[in-house]
Design goal:
It is built from nine helices and seven strands, in the order H-H-H-E-H-E-H-E-H-E-H-E-H-E-E-H. Strand 6 and strand 7 form a beta hairpin. The protein has a single domain, classed as 3-Layer(aba) Sandwich (Rossmann fold). 46% of the residues are buried. The chain is 39% helix and 19% strand. By secondary structure, the protein is of the alpha/beta class.
């Protein structure tokens, strides 16, 4: 990563940003670099690379926080149009500043809103994304309910987890997927990640999400579907 000025600049932003605790890596450049490398490990996932090469579809980073994994993937995949979805105002300020400094502002945008509001029935962003990325958003059942209304038919949800968490949450994730129009999840190991036991759980959107989802803000976490 040290050979890529944009990634190095982004790592410095993550480690040094003082106005919002955008990741647990604040003040720790090595940890920020590890999080970026973990995001880049998603480039091992064949289905995501195929979606990027196909072009013509929007991607979303759900609960983007400090822009992970979205910003590193946007830097690596110049044809991807990305929306960073983040509800915390201070984190949105950080994301917009990062996009400006990294030259991504014309291709990547920030939606400073709760995903439940952004993808409500009748919204232009409902079922509008080819790929939804999610890291550190919550258990799989929560991630599935929040992501499914954003995904277009045939789209992919890529939920970053540890393998142990993914296996522990798998049954609940499967139940939520069945309720929300997604096929069952497939666990993909990410051996190039510096984070131990890093995996991606892939779900495909196979049917329209029922209009009752997403439920009102906060309900997915308060009362998971499974």
């Amino acid at each position: 990563m040290s050979d890529d000025p944009a990634l190095a600049a982004y790592a410095d932003l993550l480690a040094g940003y003082a106005r919002a605790n955008v990741t647990g890596a604040r003040g720790a450049p090595d940890e920020a670099a590890a999080l970026i490398a973990d995001a880049h490990a998603l480039l091992q996932v064949d289905e995501l690379l195929a979606a990027a090469r196909a072009g013509g579809g929007r991607w979303a980073d759900l609960g983007s926080g400090g822009g992970l994994p979205g910003i590193p993937l946007a830097l690596a995949l110049p044809d991807v149009r990305l929306t960073l979805i983040e509800a915390v105002g201070k984190k949105c300020v950080f994301l917009r500043e990062a996009l400006e400094r990294l030259g991504l502002a014309g291709r990547v945008d920030v939606a400073c809103a709760r995903s439940e509001e952004l993808t409500a029935v009748g919204s232009a962003d409902r079922e509008a994304f080819a790929v939804v990325l999610a890291k550190a958003v919550g258990p799989l059942a929560v991630v599935v309910e929040l992501a499914a209304p954003a995904l277009a038919r045939g789209g992919l949800l890529a939920a970053s987890k540890t393998g142990s968490a993914a296996r522990r949450e798998a049954a609940a994730g499967e139940a939520a997927a069945a309720a929300c129009g997604l096929a069952g999840g497939r666990l993909v190991p990410l051996p190039s990640s510096p984070i131990p036991d890093s995996v991606c759980v892939l779900y495909e959107k196979v049917a329209a999400t029922p209009e009752r989802y997403p439920r009102r803000p906060g309900m997915a976490a308060k009362r998971p579907l499974a």
